[in-house]
Amino acid sequence: QVQLQESGPGPVKSSETLSLTCSVSGGTFGSDYWIWVRQAPGKGLEYIGHIYYTGSTHYSPSLQSRVTISVDTSKNQFSLTLTSVTPADTATYYCARAPTVTGYYYAMDVWGPGTTVSVSS
Amino acid sequence: QSALTQPASVSGSPGQSITISCTGTSNDFGSWHLVSWYQQHPGEGPKLIIYEGSKRPSGVSTRFSGSRSDNTASLTISGLQAEDEAHYYCCSYARRWLFGGGTQLTVL
To answer: Cα A65 to the chain's mean position, in Å?
Structure first.
């Protein structure tokens, strides 16, 4: 059974770059989308972007100028980089999976526990 | 691209049924209408409860059901229980994912 685990640096200062990694265990990357979602304190879920195992990516229009998602299939990991962060980027960041061939078609069926990122000014 | 529109809050008494709507444009939902719904309890991560608009994942109660009509998706919870009190989010896939703003369900 696939499990996801986010990891990251903890507190980040304004204008710096945020980097997070999602480790995938119990499965492989093929035929699924790998997604980053965030949730600001007391707010709703916000889609950040996703990547296919081939490296093809899509990003939220509101974040695409600052976001890069990459995948390292040899390490069973995918990563998020968000540049020029501000306190508005303070949130819990989740990684998730969405199957595209079998299973729960294009729905985020597996989620990591989330990692809290605080951006200080 | 704005979020899908959900009511901010709904409430119901134990045993009753409630419906949460999720409205968007045809571009938001795409041609396949791949809508999913997530339940989130305080302090926890989201949990998938409906996919492809009306299908339930294994282990999800049959009290949860989904439907669609034109550019509106709906989640109905029947036989409300105290444990259903949570936030609910709709989400659509049309080349990228788009969430609704979320609905707080209160069980009175």
So the answer is: 16
Measure the CA–CA gap between B12 and B77, rounded to whole angstroms: 10
Q: What number of other Cβ atoms are within 10 A of residue A113's Cβ?
A: 13
* Euclidean distance between CA atoms A13 and A103, whole angstroms: 40
**Residue for token digits 């302090």?**
B43
- Extract the tokens encoding B18: 């409630």
B chain contacts of residue A45, beta-carbon cutoff 8 Å: 38, 40, 46, 89, 91, 99, 102
pLDDT digits (tens, 9 = 90+) for A53-85: 888 999 999 999 999 999 998 999 999 999 999
pLDDT at B1: 63
Provide the b/e sequence for A38-69 (b: ≥16 CB within 10 Å): bbeeeebbbbbbbbbeeeebbbbeebeebbbb
Residue A114 in contact with partner chain B when CB distance is under 8 A = yes
Q: What is the pLDDT of residue B20?
A: 98
pLDDT of B5: 97
Contact A56/B at CB under 8 A: no
What is the residue-averaged pLDDT of chain A?
A: 94
Q: Which has the higher per-residue pLDDT, A4 or A28?
A: A4
- Smallest CA–CA distance, residue A105 to chain B, in Å, is 7
- Cβ atoms of A79 and A5 within 8 Å: the answer is no
Instruction: Extract the residue ranges of chain B whose pLDDT is less than 50.
Output: none
Residue A103 CA to residue B13 CA, distance in Å, equals 34
Q: Which residues of chain B does A109 touch, with a Cβ-Cβ cutoff of 8 Å?
A: 48, 51, 57
